[in-house]
Amino acid sequence: MTTTEKSATNTAFRRILLACTCAAIFPACTSLKNVHVEADSLIAHSSVQVDVAPTSAAVQQVSVRQYFEPGNSVRSAAGATKIRFGPGLPATRTVPAPGGHGVTVLADIPGISDAPGDADPRRKTIPASGSGVASEMQISVTASGLTVTPLK
């Protein structure tokens, strides 16, 4: 083996070793790409609105009841993808995750009292990346609130 071949082999080995070391030290960090919103049969046959919005302080601070009031300025400015469930409409929708700091999913489910932030079962925040985040996340919408499940 020539000196050039040995150098190339050593360089390739070092790159593989560095990649393996980084993978061991830093767990896989997946970026959120899509949010799959699925309504259970009760919600799918009701009239329920769900918004998938870029996470912001305003979206976190407004009560869910106020957020869904007609003409609410936070909702108007949020840049959310708006989904409606109801008779004759699909029970599952997939929306691309907006870039930035993550997404906040809000659902206008009747009969649930307001609570601050994610303590309200009708609001769930998913970071753009990090522990517990998959590239595909599922939001299940039920009469008791939202549930988040990583898919991929």
Polypeptide structure, described:
The protein has 152 residues and is α+β, with helices and mostly antiparallel strands. It has helices at residues 3-25, 41-44, 57-61, 64-67, 73-77; strands at residues 34-39, 48-54, 81-85, 92-96, 102-107, 123-127, 136-142, 145-150. Helices cover 27% and strands 31% of the residues. The longest helix has 23 residues, at 3-25. The strands form two sheets. Strands 4-1-7-8 form a four-stranded mixed sheet. The protein has a four-stranded antiparallel sheet with strand order 3-2-5-6, with no helix packed on it. It is globular and about 75 Å long. It has two domains: 1-28; 31-150, Immunoglobulin-like.
Instruction: Give a short account of the largest sheet.
Output: 4 strands, mixed
CATH superfamily of the largest domain: Type VI secretion system, lipoprotein SciN
Order of helices and strands: HEHEHHHEEEEEE
Q: Which fold name fills CATH's third level, the topology of the largest domain?
A: Immunoglobulin-like
Round the Cα radius of gyration to an integer and report it.
21 Å
Form type:
globular
Average pLDDT: 84
Strand neighbour order, sheet with most strands: 4-1-7-8
Number of helices: 5
Termini gap: 44 Å
Low-confidence stretches: 8-28
Q: CATH first level of the largest domain: which class?
A: Mainly Beta
The count of domains is: 2
Q: How much β-strand is present in the residues?
A: 25-35%
Report helical residue fraction: 25-40%
